[in-house]
Amino acid sequence: MAGVQPPPLRSLDDFLLSSARFAVPDVRDLERWNNRMINNLLYYQTNYFLSTLGVLLIVGYFQPLQLFVGMTVVTVLFLGFVWAAENKASIRRFRRNHPLVTVLTILLASYLFISALGGVAVFLFGIAFPVLSLPWDSCWRPWGRNRRLGPKQGGEGEDGSEDEVGGKEKMEQ
User: Fold this and answer.
1) Given a cut of 60, is residue 172 above it in pLDDT?
2) What is the rounded distance in angstroms from the CA atom of residue 16 to the CA atom of residue 48?
């Protein structure tokens, strides 16, 4: 674990401003769309993490009590669901077969419980907005060849003789 380093923080210009490009994804090619999202999530993960943290800090600054109440309610409901899933086989099967429905049910129950208490779903907004903006952003941002996730593996050097994705095989074609 000593060799693990967080990915570098990308520049604001690359992440949001002039050099950032956004394009409509090709929804007919799901494999390419999926690769685009994964590559963008990996490449900008530090920026996404800091953006999410920033939104939570802003929400916590303006609505600290509601954020704390929301965080407590969501945590208690989530832990209650995990406990029920560990003790009931039918709930465990449902959680394994329908993970998205499970998460949405927990969030909906949290929202209804917070609303019943008279509070605002500040925590849910503080979590949902950044989390939903991650796939949205990574989906609309095209993946460029000039972006690399890490150092070249087994490359010939910096003379441009190898492509960072395909290697020598692509050069010969």
Assistant:
1) no
2) 11
Secondary structure element (H or E) that encloses residue 149, with its range? none
More confident residue, 123 or 24: 24
Q: In one letter, which amino acid is 167? A: G
Torsion of CA 84, 87, 88, 89, to 10 degrees: 130
The full DSSP string for 23-56 is ----TT-HHHHHHHHHHHHHHTHHHHHHHHHHHH
More confident residue, 96 or 131: 96
Write out pLDDT tens, residues 111-167. Answer: 777 776 655 456 666 767 777 777 777 777 776 656 666 655 544 444 444 444 444
The two most distant CA atoms of the chain are separated, in Å, by 66
Nearest CA-CA partner of 59 in 111, 8, 127: 127
Cβ neighbours of residue 81 under 8 Å, at least 6 residues apart?
91, 95, 102, 106
pLDDT at 61: 92
Among positive and negative, which fits the CA dihedral 49, 70, 133, 97?
Answer: positive
